[in-house]
Amino acid sequence: MIADHALKYSYRISKNEGNAMAKIEITKTELVWPGKYNEDGTIKEVPRVNLPFQVIETINESQATRKAKIGGQQIGLFDVWEGKEGDTFEEGWKNKLIWGDNLLVMGSLLEKFAGKIDLIYIDPPFATGADFSFPTAVGDNSLLVTKEQSIIEEKAYRDTWGGGIESYLQMIYDRLILIRELLSENGSIVVHLAPTVSHQVRCAMDEVFGSHNFRNEIIVNRPISKNLQRQFDTITALPQGHDVLLWYSSNLATRVQNLLIPYKAKHPEGYWHRFWSGADRPTMRYELLGETLSHGQWKWEEQRAKRAVENYKRYLAESRGRTLVEYWRDTGCQLEFIRKSETGTVENWFPPRNDKIGDTVWEDIKAYENQKDYPTQKHRELLERIISWLTKEGDLVLDSFCGSGTTLAVAEKLGRRWIGCDLSRWAIHVTRKRLLSIENCRPFDVLNLGKYERKYWMGVTFGDKKKDHQQIAIFQYIAFMLKLYRAEPITGMQHIHGKKGRALVHIGAVDAPVTIDEVNACIEECLAVDQKELHVLGWEWEMGMTPYIVQEAKRRGIKLLLVTIPREVMEQQAVDKGDIQFFEVAHLEVDIKKDKNCQITVSLTDFAFPYADMIPEDVRAKIKKWSDYIDYWAIDWNFQNDTFMNGWVAYRTRKERKLPLNSDPHKYEKPGKHTIMVKVVDIFGNDTSQTFEVNIVH
Q1: For a pLDDT cut of 70, what percent of the chain falls above it?
Q2: 507-517: b or e for each residue (b if 16 or more CB lie within 10 Å)?
Q3: Helix 406-413 to helix 425-436 angle, to the nearest 10 degrees?
Q4: Which of 332, 348, 220, 208 is nearest to 289 (CA)?
Q5: What is the tally of helices (H) and strands (E) in the chain?
Q6: What is the pTM of this model?
Q7: Most exposed among 43, 312, 553, 685, judged by the fewest C-beta atoms under 10 Å?
Q8: CA 531 to CA 558: how far, in whole Å?
């Protein structure tokens, strides 16, 4: 077993009968790290899971499109994304923002997108001391609260760096395998790295994509904002002044357009240069302006050169006081010119240019934004260069570590189709706001793997998928959740699963929202055994059940606590560390008013923020209003028990901290009962939704 990562030779072994010696045939050079191979010498397979996507929110889609899509039928709490839209905006394509582990997400994308993605840009975390915490502004006055890395983000850190460079390489390698299958025939992948790890990742990329598909290592300027080394006489290393982009293609035959870099012309009037070249092709030695070469050659073929001579003669005849560059522009910036200089040298004219051919050193552009909404936020100009160079309008771009969404925002503005993915709920929220701020942003869906990921997790964690083992898996799942909640299991009851102190406990299923009927059944069992407190744990909740069900339970003498099961319970590292925290379901209140024109206005009147203990006491003391805990809220004016459709939205930005608590008026075309859903996203990126009924009479 190799104890450290190293370059090694891959080999094949053939045993000879009766001979203890084995024949080793070396086939290639390979980077190997602990964990890459199984004990029997076979390479570990990349997990491949094909799970359905849930559409949890649709943004900027018209009501007419929605009606056509569902045909007037109620679908369910979340739409299942069917992938039936076309491959162009005209054919109905919608961009996609996906919350989840990118390994599971990319595996699930393969069915519909294998061989269809034209550019994949990824910026995986590459600092061993990575800090996922960052300051987030609270309320109108921008009180700063440090948004500590969530357990789920810490999980990404542990998975990536918990075992050092070995676990980092395994993380990258697994994802590169899936990326290779997602890339189109002429697609490109660009991986953004620090020089501390780029050499090792390049070896892994050579293995996955083939060294023949390596195109370039590009150096990008990384400004040093604080030079702390000034205070020392001796140093261990120079400050890191650059990042690395590794560019690979999926095909050796792939060709891309020339990269043209904006450039201030040194010669605004153009310049003349000798037309002779030191190369030696006899076919390029012809008579030109009375001169025939004996050695070397002219730069262009004969017909082109003589046409340029005539162009210059025409300029002299037609210039009427214009300079050559003025004449060139007036005639369409296409003409070429050749003349004989006063010294008798044949020369051709180079017009002024505002760009130059780019190379692998991008010193004119920065890797990071100066002002950031998110850690390690990449510079918009960097992504503009990559996307506009390696794709054309309508091409499909994927960023599976999308962070604050720079790649997606740039792709949107450049008319590319895009798919973005991130593990952090906050990253998805920041990206959603960023996209919403783009004028005329096309419709996009927010998706996750939802109940399908949870069901997969339960099957992997508590048993196989065989029918006769499903009930055992459910029992083990309930026992697991009770232990995490620090509750004791009890038997003999149909709906109650455990007890915590004086409270009875019910655990909701992994693949369905907790319903009103389900909670009512638990209340009945509490009353039957004369217990006055009930805790119900759930992943999702039937729309409209809160706060109605809490009030109904109180009326019947039961203190009801609705508790959200955090996604982190699916991460074994978080479980082992005891990092799991349970919080009550947040609660919001609204006031709905109807004017004489039957227009509806919604006002937020209260929001119960369950995560206040996560905010330092000194900051919490300065927060005077419940609305300070809200970062974003939106309304679906005609909720259909399906995907949330963002019909009106308000949110805070870095510049605009005031959050309106009253919506714009909305007028319904038809009378009758309508369901309004209000979604609130708090300062930590957690969302709370509630439904309300309105009756419109014209």
Answers
A1: 85
A2: bbbbeebbeee
A3: 20
A4: 348
A5: 16, 36
A6: 0.82
A7: 43
A8: 8
Q: For residues 360 and 264, give the distance between their C-alpha atoms in angstroms, rounded to a whole number.
A: 19
pLDDT digits (tens, 9 = 90+) for 657-674: 899 999 999 998 888 899
Q: Higher pLDDT residue, 461 or 579? A: 461
**Residue 469, Cα to own-chain centre: how many angstroms?**
37
Distance separating alpha carbons of residues 499 and 522, to the nearest angstrom? 13
For 272, the 3-state DSSP assignment is strand
Give the closest residue to 178 by CA, choosing from 53, 50, 298: 50
**Do 459 and 473 touch, CB atoms closer than 8 A?**
yes
**Cα-to-chain-centroid distance, residue 258:** 28
Q: Are strands 361-366 and 214-221 parallel, antiparallel or unpaired?
A: parallel
d(CA 442, CA 437): 11
208 is written with which tokens?
């996955």
Q: In this model, does residue 518 exceed pLDDT 70?
A: yes
Task: Share the mean pLDDT of the chain.
Answer: 85
User: What is the pLDDT averaged over residues 421-441?
Assistant: 91
Residue 131: is its pLDDT beyond 60?
Answer: no
Place of tokens 């269809």: 116
Which helix H or strand E contains 169, and what residues bound it? helix 165-182
Amino acid at 286: Y
Contacts of 144 (CB under 8 A, 6+ apart): 135, 136, 137, 138, 619
Distance CA 454, CA 462 (A): 12
- Asked if 132 and 154 count as a contact pair (C-beta separation under 8 A), the reply is yes
- Angle, in degrees to the nearest 10, between helices 516-528 and 548-555: 20
- How far are the Cα atoms of 212, 516, 549, 585, 631 from residue 553, in angstroms, in the given order? 68, 11, 6, 15, 31
One-character DSSP codes across 435-484 = HHTSTTPPPEEEEE-HHHHHHHHHHHHH--S-GGGHHHHHHHHHHHHHHH
Cα separation values, 381 from 195, 353, 602, 614, Å: 21, 21, 40, 36
Structure confidence at residue 697 as a pLDDT band (50, 70, 90): confident
Two tokens, residue 115 = 């061989």
Residue 161: count other Cβ atoms within 10 Å of its Cβ.
Answer: 19
Q: Which residues pair with 273 in a beta bridge?
A: 348
Q: Identify which of 454, 459, 487, 494 has the alpha carbon closest to the alpha carbon of residue 473.
A: 459
Structure tokens at 59: 């943004």
DSSP string computed for 628-668: GGEEEEEEETT--SSSEEE-EEEE--SS------BPPPEE-
Place of tokens 């006899």: 282
Which residue from 676, 579, 513, 622 is spatially nearest to 157, judged by alpha carbons? 579
